[in-house]
Specification:
This protein is mostly beta strands. The chain has one helix and twelve strands; from the N terminus they run E-E-E-E-E-E-H-E-E-E-E-E-E.
């Protein structure tokens, strides 16, 4: 059952298009990017969630949110990392069943290798 959806906005210096959905499944909440998803790449990207606009958060706040709520790493290659390998299409993974949906309103893509905001999307009711 579809619970939430959103559209991505690229972070500074990146290209990111497409959107995402969050659905309730028997195994938990499934996050999936849409088939038109495109991200220009970074060394170690991963999705996480946060309360509030991530562009207003400090790098430390985003890093803490990413380390505590990260749920879908998109690491493309083992070290040494290739700086920009494009990621396209559906990327999906399970979020923990106890994910506190009432406590966040944005999904963001974070670079765990070079701490930086890669892109984000506001979570909207489906």
């Amino acid at each position: 059952m579809l619970v939430s959806k959103g559209t991505f906005t690229a972070g500074p210096g990146h290209e990111m298009t497409g959107g995402f959905t969050i659905s309730r499944t028997p195994a938990g909440f499934e996050f999936a990017t849409t088939s038109d998803f495109f991200f220009d790449g970074s060394p170690a990207p991963g999705f996480a969630y946060i309360q509030g606009d991530p562009t207003s958060a400090t790098s430390n706040e985003l890093g803490l949110a990413a380390s505590t709520s990260g749920f879908l790493p998109l690491t493309q290659t083992p070290p040494p990392f290739v700086p920009r390998v494009e990621i396209k299409g559906v990327q999906s993974g399970l979020m923990h069943p106890s994910t506190p949906f009432m406590q966040f309103d944005h999904i963001f893509l974070w670079c765990f290798e070079i701490p930086s905001l890669l892109g984000y999307g506001k979570v909207e009711e489906a």
